[in-house]
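Input/output pair, single chain:
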Amino acid sequence: MNESGYAVQKIAAWWKTPRPEILVVSDDLDLPFGRLRMRQGGGSGGHNGLKSLIAELGGDDFPRLRVGIGRGRDAIGHVLTSFSEGERKQFDDVVAAAADGVFTWLDQSPAAAMNFVNAWKQPGEEGSAPTHP
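Output:
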């Protein structure tokens, strides 16, 4: 992921895809595990993969779906460590919701996808939204 900008830029150039039509899905240390956030653009937030994409694509105006993994004491170790037992139990719901967000973005609109993703809460979480858009 850290050097993904080069490959994405080559694919986008081949297909003549403008930045706002490239949806990037990435992990995010600054979001609690399982929290999802979708935005139309923005900075890297210190994420090396997003830094690479911004540099190679020549701007940050591409949408991104951030999937929270929480923050450990050691960021690198945390990113490379296996999920805890509790996180593994929630993982399928998180991945399904993220996939639903991507399909909503493709099939409906970025606004519909952002509305779904940004309101989604894990099953059992207070105020949880429906699991599918």
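The chain has a mean pLDDT of 90. The CA atoms of residues 83 and 95 lie 13 Å apart.
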